[in-house]
């Protein structure tokens, strides 16, 4: 009997478009979906005599990400020309960084379930410019060079991931990090993030280890495509090994595309090696020297990273892993929640208001939670009223919505909208007596200790809430009703 064991090995290359106003080496404006070839100039068109000028903000953003990922930031780095011919590359070379990346030897931690984290090593972080875009229509092809020269941050991991789920987890976490740092919008529908996994298998058959040839899947622009393509490549490579015995030594690295419809990878070409690109230093650009003063100024912009904040929300505020992950999906929401809790509100109640109401209202208005017009301190006051039993949880949602268009305090809104909860036991007892008198059969069912008991009690509670227009404190009503039933 043949004994076979296999392990998937994945490294990831991630391209992140930086949120600069202009391109990497010229002053052309970066605008999504602008009229084709309307945001170009002699530099990004590669016209003779045009000289590039480095975008300082892009360099600082790259250094910030490198520091956040624990990389060693290079004190000296340079620009290199990566030569290849393609219609959307007007210069016939791409300005990139080859042997001296801006950051190296870092790591990123990813959640792997149950509160655990796995450390994935970062090989390098470097800057480069994007190419343009080929547009195919029928038998004709056109080129839009608006993207040519867009600043891209390329992040390359070591092959430390061992499942499609881990690869997706890293991509999601990296998206959160660049958004937290404010260096990219990371909107994949706009092409701000693209993923290229490098996949192969280590297969042990009857005690002998074999390694399949590495496949690189190009230009994936969704978490779903990333996860599915890695899973399919693992399946395809294992099937190929079983049928042909092909291993790494007998096959070069290959690049594949992803067919979203058929959900399969499609062979594109044999992968080029570094020497095929004929790298050499760009003579038109000066090297970048990062001194201690500049590095410290950039690093002063670092914030608490999302995974650390998520862990703190769980340990400090007692939130569930799910709630903490929702709140830390973006920095603005996370910091808004944190400020509201520090202003004295109960963490779980504030979390519920934000995740169940605030995010929905923000989405409808096309803004974030902090832009709804409700300060964290006012939200904390609203929650305190709920905790004190002054208003119900349902009323709190109504008041929260009203607060987005009013500068009144939550107490004032509650008074104006007649949402203050009745907790006077004497007053509520009279109402309970009236409800019991008007619903003798329901009261009898409630005291019968039979199948109808629970339903009858719920009905009586509902009648009291209806009679008080929802302003009765349900805890007080429940105690009164319980006492009546025992009598």
Q: What is this structure's SSE topology?
A:
Elements: E1 4-17, H1 56-68, E2 72-73, E3 76-77, E4 80-83, E5 93-96, E6 103-113, E7 116-129, E8 133-137, E9 140-144, E10 151-157, H2 164-181, E11 193-205, E12 208-211, E13 215-217, H3 223-244, E14 254-259, E15 264-270, E16 280-281, E17 288-289, H4 292-299, H5 306-317, H6 321-327, H7 331-342, H8 347-365, H9 376-387, H10 393-403, H11 410-416, H12 425-438, H13 440-447, H14 453-467, H15 474-486
Describe the 3D structure.
The protein is an alpha+beta fold. It has 3 domains: 4-294, no CATH class; 306-416, no CATH class; 425-486, Arc Repressor Mutant, subunit A, CATH 1.10.10. The chain has 15 helices and 17 strands. Strands 1, 2, 6, 7, 10, 11, 12, 13, 14 and 15 form a 10-stranded mixed β-sheet that branches. β11 and β12 (208-211) form a beta hairpin. α2 runs antiparallel to α3 and α12 crosses α14.
Question: Brief description of this entry?
Answer:
Helix content is 39%, strand content 22%. With 487 residues, it is an alpha+beta fold.
The end-to-end distance, rounded to whole angstroms, is 76 Å
Integer-rounded radius of gyration: 30 Å
Mean pLDDT: 91
SS-based class: alpha+beta
Shape: elongated
Count of distinct structural domains = 3
Strand content: 15-25%
Helix content: 25-40%
Largest sheet: 10 strands, mixed
Q: List how many beta strands DSSP finds.
A: 17
Which regions contain 5 or more consecutive residues with pLDDT less than 50? Answer: none
Number of helices: 15
């Amino acid at each position: 009997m043949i004994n076979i064991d296999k392990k998937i090995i994945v490294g990831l290359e991630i391209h992140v478009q930086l949120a600069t106003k202009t391109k990497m080496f010229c002053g052309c404006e970066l605008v999504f979906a602008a009229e084709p070839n309307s945001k170009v100039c002699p530099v990004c068109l590669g016209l003779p005599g045009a000289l590039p000028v480095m975008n300082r903000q892009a360099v600082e953003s790259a250094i910030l990400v490198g520091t956040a990922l624990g990389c060693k930031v290079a004190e000296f780095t340079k620009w290199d020309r990566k030569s290849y011919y393609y219609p959307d590359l007007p210069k016939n070379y791409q300005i990139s960084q080859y042997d001296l990346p801006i950051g190296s030897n870092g790591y990123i931690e990813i959640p792997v379930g149950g509160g655990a984290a796995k450390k994935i090593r970062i090989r390098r972080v470097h800057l480069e410019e994007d190419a343009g875009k080929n547009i195919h229509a029928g038998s004709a092809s056109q080129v839009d060079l608006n993207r040519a020269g867009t600043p891209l941050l390329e992040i390359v991991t070591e092959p430390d991931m061992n499942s499609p789920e881990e690869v997706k987890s890293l991509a999601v976490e990296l998206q959160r990090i660049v958004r937290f740092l404010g260096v990219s919008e990371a909107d994949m529908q706009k092409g701000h993030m693209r993923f290229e996994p490098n996949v192969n298998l280590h297969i042990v058959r009857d005690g002998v280890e074999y390694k399949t040839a590495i496949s690189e899947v190009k230009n994936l622009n969704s978490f779903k495509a990333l996860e599915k393509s890695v899973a399919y490549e693992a399946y395809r490579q294992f099937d190929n090994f079983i049928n042909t015995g092909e291993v790494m030594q007998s096959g070069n690295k290959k690049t594949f595309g992803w067919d979203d419809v058929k959900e399969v990878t499609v062979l594109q070409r044999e992968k080029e090696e570094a020497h095929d690109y004929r790298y050499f230093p760009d003579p038109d650009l000066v090297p970048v020297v990062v001194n201690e003063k500049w590095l410290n100024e950039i690093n002063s912009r670092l914030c608490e990273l999302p995974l650390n904040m998520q862990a703190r929300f769980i340990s400090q505020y007692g939130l569930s892993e799910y709630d903490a992950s929702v709140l830390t999906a973006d920095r603005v929401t996370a910091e808004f929640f944190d400020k509201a809790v520090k202003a004295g509100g109960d963490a779980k109640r504030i979390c519920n208001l934000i995740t169940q109401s605030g995010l929905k209202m923000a989405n409808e208005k096309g803004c974030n939670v902090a832009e709804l017009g409700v300060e964290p301190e006012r939200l904390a006051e609203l929650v305190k009223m709920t905790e004190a039993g002054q208003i119900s949880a349902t009323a709190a949602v109504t008041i929260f919505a009203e607060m987005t268009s009013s500068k009144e305090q939550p107490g004032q809104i509650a008074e104006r909208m007649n949402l203050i909860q009745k907790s006077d036991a004497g007053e509520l007892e009279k109402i309970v007596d009236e409800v019991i008198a008007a619903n003798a059969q329901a009261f009898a069912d409630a005291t019968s200790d039979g199948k109808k008991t629970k339903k009858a009690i719920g009905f009586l509670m509902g009648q009291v809430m209806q009679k008080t227009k929802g302003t009765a404190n349900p805890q007080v009503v429940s105690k009164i009703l319980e006492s009546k039933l025992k009598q």
